[in-house]
Amino acid sequence: MRKTTNWTSTILIALGSLLILFPLYMTISIALKNPEEMAVSIFSLPTGLHFENFRNAIEATNFFNALKNSVVITVISVVFILLTNSMVAYAIARNMKDKFFKVLYFYFISAMFIPFQIIMLPVVKVTTDLHMNNIVGLIILYVVYGLAFNIFVYVGYIRSIPYELEEAATMDGASTWGTYWKIIFPLLAPISATIGILSCLSTWNDFMLPLILLGDQNSYTLPLVQYVFQGQFGTDFNLAFASYLLALTPMVIVYLFAQKWIIGGITQGAIKS
């Protein structure tokens, strides 16, 4: 039997692809133009490839220093998020019958409904008073801010893991700590892959928290140094868009190399019984 084409889905997919590809085209096109070409037409293809925009953007933003800061902050934050958040979730998930842990669980979940703008000024005040307005303080805040959503996800996943596995490990002489590292943590790999990539993207792309927290320009991250192109009387769009491409390239490379594990983790998490 011959299959018919679902034109509605095909058209919607095509439109969705255009919505994604058009901004990417504009970013690459503007990054490779000069101001004169921009004045003629913003939508046209560049008549010449002005790669000097990338060199000038690297110099203007101190790109490699900002790249180092972003990599350090993102990698350390994600590692601590996966380790600490999963441990907290494990303690809560296995003690949900206890009233204290149930209250603690809903206390953490309630943080998901508090907008960042409400706590922004108190965070600045407290971190400044504690001399934590630096990279270390920023990493700690990323680990804490991810706690609410990550615990919500981890607890639901851990409760689907048969408790008999832990009982068998206990009978073999394993401690609670040993059971977690040898039994539970490896089984969390699918959901950890999902949380890891979401945390990585949100940490790498975050602009607001570094803006209000970091006072030293040598500590600026890649999203934050893009602000250098915003002048009082205008914006150098060619250099700005070249810098945007440089800033997003590392995450594209990470995704290209890690997509197998990312997709596999999401798929395994979806079919977890």
TrEMBL record:
The places in or outside the cell where this protein is found are:
Cell membrane
Which InterPro entries does the annotation name? Answer: BP-dep_ABC_trans_perm, MetI-like, MetI-like_sf
Q: What is its main location?
A: membrane
Q: Where is the ABC transmembrane type-1 domain?
A: 67-258
What keywords sit in the KW lines? Cell membrane, Membrane, Transmembrane, Transmembrane helix, Transport
Q: Name one Pfam family in it.
A: BPD_transp_1
Annotated transmembrane regions: 12-32, 71-92, 104-123, 135-158, 179-204, 237-258
Question: In the UniProt record, which is one GO cellular component term?
Answer: plasma membrane
Task: List this protein's GO terms for biological process.
Answer: transmembrane transport
- Is Cell membrane tagged as a keyword? yes
Membrane topology of this protein:
Multi-pass membrane protein
Recorded family membership: Belongs to the binding-protein-dependent transport system permease family.
Protein name, UniProt field = ABC transporter permease
Q: What is the lineage of its organism?
A: Bacteria, Bacillati, Bacillota, Bacilli, Bacillales
